[in-house]
């Protein structure tokens, strides 16, 4: 463990280079794009290039082809959030040729690991995709949630998770006139109910999300930076 100013950035050169020599990729994960760009464009990146390594940069402004090229490099500088989003997007792809992370995972160096794995772990990475759902299901879930009392749900404030109590489940089954809310045939309904619960009781406008009336989107706010997550319309 090294304190601020003791040379973590310089020290990281040695394990990064050593592991890149094996032919496997090395990911250097930082907390923000400024740090990733600084090391990629600065003297640290020059050291790796002098040693014969290819160095890539992964930021949210890169297009699909640029990301694919970056992930093919020996050493990649990336932010934790962009790395997570790329992983999620790859898991949504059908064709292997569309993957951006084509090389196997091998070795990673995580800067500010306590911030990334503990503090920022509380903020979920959310990927949305256009789906053909009827608006009626959203409206019905919202109408049901508005009938709930405190005894019908339990909230975990720290993680912002919310679940129906046994009484709440019974109320939902009566409201929607079904036998078992957790039956696989009602998976879509359960998903909408849980989202309606979270929206109604754990999310607050202009604090947890912003409404973009121009584009018709709801954008999640990063509680650590105060900015909206890129590519996370809900």
From TrEMBL:
The keyword Phosphoprotein does not apply. Residues 1-234 form the SecA family profile domain. InterPro entries: Helicase_ATP-bd, P-loop_NTPase, SecA, SecA_DEAD, SecA_motor_DEAD, SecA_preprotein_X-link_dom, SecA_X-link_sf. Keywords: Cell membrane, Membrane, Protein transport, Translocation, Transport. Pfam families: SecA_DEAD. Residues 1-151 form the Helicase ATP-binding domain. One of its GO terms (molecular function) is ATP binding. It comes from the Bacteria. One of its GO terms (biological process) is protein transport by the Sec complex. CDD domains: DEXDc_SecA. GO terms for cellular component: cell envelope Sec protein transport complex; cytosol; plasma membrane. The keyword Magnesium does not apply. This is Truncated SecA. It comes from Periwinkle proliferation phytoplasma.
């Amino acid at each position: 463990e090294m304190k601020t100013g003791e040379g973590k950035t310089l020290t990281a050169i040695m394990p990064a280079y050593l592991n890149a020599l094996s032919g496997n990729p090395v990911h250097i994960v930082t907390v923000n794009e400024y740090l990733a760009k600084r090391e990629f464009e600065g003297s640290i990146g020059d050291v790796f290039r002098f040693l014969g390594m290819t160095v890539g940069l992964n930021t949210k402004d890169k297009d699909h082809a640029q990301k694919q090229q970056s992930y093919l490099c020996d050493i990649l500088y990336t932010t934790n959030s962009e790395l997570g989003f790329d992983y999620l997007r790859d898991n949504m792809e059908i064709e292997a040729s569309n993957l951006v992370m084509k090389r196997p995972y091998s070795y990673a160096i995580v800067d500010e690991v306590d911030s990334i794995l503990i503090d920022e772990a509380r903020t979920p990475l959310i990927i949305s995709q256009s789906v053909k759902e009827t608006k009626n299901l959203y409206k019905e879930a919202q109408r049901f949630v508005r009938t709930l009392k405190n005894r019908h749900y339990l909230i975990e404030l720290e993680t912002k998770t919310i679940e129906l109590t046994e009484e709440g489940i019974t109320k939902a089954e009566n409201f929607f006139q079904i036998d078992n809310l957790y039956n696989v045939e009602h998976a879509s309904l359960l998903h909408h109910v849980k989202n309606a619960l979270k929206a109604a009781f754990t999310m607050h406008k202009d604090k947890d999300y912003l409404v973009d009336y121009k584009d018709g989107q709801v954008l999640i706010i990063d509680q650590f930076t105060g900015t909206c997550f890129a590519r996370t319309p809900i």
